[in-house]
Amino acid sequence: MLQPLWEGGPLFALFQPIVDLRRGSIFGHEALIRGPVGTPLHTPLALLELATREARLTEFELHCVDVILAEWRVLGAPGRLFLNLGSDALNAAMGGDRPCRFERALAKHGVDVRSVTVEITEQRHAGDVAALRLAVKTLQSFGGTVALDDFGEGHSNLRLWAELKPDIVKIDKFFTHGIAVSLEHLEMVRAIVTFAHTLGTTLVAEGVEDTDDLRVLRDLGIGLGQGYLLGRPAAQPTRTVTAPITEAIRDSRIAVMPQASQAVRPGVLRSLALIHAPALQPSTLNDDVSLIFQARPELHALAVIDQGRPVALINRQSFMNDYARLYFREVHGRRPCVAYANQTPRIVGIDDDVEDLVGILMSEDQRYLSDGFIVTEHGRYVGLGTGEQLVRTVTEARVETARHANPLTFLPGNIPISIHIERLIAGRAGFVACYADLNHFKSFNDHYGYWRGDEMIRLLARLAVRHGHAHRDFVGHIGGDDFLILFQSRDWQQRCAHLIQDFAVEALTLYDDAARSAGGIDGADRHGVRRFFPCATLSIGALCVAPGMLMHAEDVASEAAVAKHEAKLAASGLAVRHVAVSAHARSDS
Questions:
Q1: Strand segments (E) across 132-180
Q2: What pTM was estimated for this model as a whole?
Q3: Which of 291, 330, 399, 499 could form a disulfide with 467 if both were Cys (CB 3.0 to 4.6 A apart)?
Q4: Domain limits of the chain?
């Protein structure tokens, strides 16, 4: 029974910090309710399940708010207080005469509403979205803020975000966990960040448990973070961020994203052959819809628009199956068609990237494949696309994207290399651009053939990746036996020396016994003259780039190429150059 929890007061709160990923400071705390320690009702899930069974969920949630506010007032913790409420509880707290129940609770405990954020926790579909929208606006009107919790999980979805317009959205840990090594998670979070920028929403990355994930999330522009790495729930709120976390946040080095993400998005929907199908009005009769489908057998669907903007989609097969049923046309033929439409169609802008539609292919709701999607320009209907078109276009886009990776080593090619250099320059991160090139590779390739030549290039690729830090150093393949490594590791010089040494040893395994004994092979040089060529070695020209010294990727590439030529003459195989004058100074001279 829940009643003893009210009477005996064994409920208490824990507070988990939410950290500002730009400043490295405490932004606020999320309050998490707990029941009696050592009992089955200690966890919030057990408490909420019991409250639901007893049909007292709203009452219980509001009582938890009272418990939390009482503790918060005494603690005097820094930053904002985040409170969890379901939609029904928020409606009840904000409804009625002013001051409403929520205002009275805040006044009772002396907590300023301007320091409070209410997290809407929806594990089930919000029943009355209009009422919830009103409750949100009411809270915002007198200074409170609203957060949408666990976005991407349960019923915390894009439509609810668009309708409620919360101040803050918390990205579910499913998307953020392991983002430093997951291209799929990275791209999904990128899309969330873009939507947040459009609506002016602040994002919180939940489930931050790894320093590499933290750096990627920071570099994606997510302002706030929460997770065990940043602080666990505790009875005493966190006052300051620990030194290692502050150091990671303020580290000027740019995170290296999962490699495939470096490719430029090539395709937009303007390249699709859209289906310019007639549009329906919400009041269009079912009989008229049937006539259109009969006259246009090529149409897979019809869009329903209201004042030029799409609101629903009618699938041909589904509609015509219903229309063919006994007595359907007699009973429903003169009724509006919108009742038989999918009122949550997939709508995309004509300038959206094709890759943004991958979610349709991955969705459990297969209607999106059979219905296709509605295409708009500036929000207004322009045509339809089919599931078949989508599959073909996404496939073509993926093939085009693959062109940005070297087909021999699958390392990023020239375009993603340039993109990462520009990121480093824009982020004012100091870095070292190392141009790696093989010595005597042509003679080896001519002597043993291109199959073994490819093996040597792949060997260099494996060693370069092995000697770089996965999340700090970027390894790119320019082409042939030319590679560019963009180091942010502070021990880059040692890494280069080891790379040169390891290549010299492992490359020998690609020669035959006679060549190894002789220390090289006989062959023709570029002029056709026969001479002796030593076994292949590696030269690295290193260009040290301080923040603000160079402005464009082309500058970095050309200066690094000069360093490479100097490395060819160095006994160690490594030559180091420093940019002598800033790009600004050179442009003024």
A1: 145-151, 168-171
A2: 0.64
A3: 499
A4: 3-251, 269-398, 414-588
